Amino acid sequence: MRDKTAAAIAVCSVETTVSIIGGCWKLTIIQELLDCTLRYGELRRAVGEVTDRVLTRQLRELEEDGLVHREVYPEVPPHVEYSLTPMGETLRTLVRDLDEWGQTWVAAQRVPT
Fold first, then answer.
1. For strand 38-39 and strand 79-84, is the pairing parallel, antiparallel, or unpaired?
2. Roughly what angle, to the nearest 10 degrees, separates helices 52-64 and 40-47?
3. Does an H or E element contain 83, and which?
4. Which of 4, 20, 87, 110 has the most neighbouring CB atoms within 10 Å?
5. How many folded domains does the chain comprise?
6. What is the pLDDT along the chain (113 residues), one digit of tens a residue?
7. CATH of the domain at 43
8. Confidence (pTM)
9. Distance between CA atoms of residues 111 and 10, nearest Å
């Protein structure tokens, strides 16, 4: 568990949740991993306009907080796969609900023509 997460636990459960999944790309990463295990390059292409540095940092934080599993295969070049842990899988409903809410919000913002 990261220090930031441990500090958030002392505040409240909402702060803890935001600390764990509130990174700039974390929910997108989780959403992509809900359907399947992905190699780093596949995940980077699926996520979109993210730098390698930021994606790596976000993945490490998700791994430290127990939501993402990183499997390294001893090959040359190294083969690394990312998947959700059982705890990460529990976010399925939350991610779906956030997606639906986002679609509703976008629809509400449309100006009638």
1. antiparallel
2. 110
3. strand 79-84
4. 20
5. 1
6. 667 676 666 678 888 888 899 888 999 999 999 999 999 999 999 999 999 999 999 999 999 999 999 999 988 888 999 999 999 999 999 999 999 999 999 999 886 65
7. 1.10.10.10
8. 0.85
9. 43
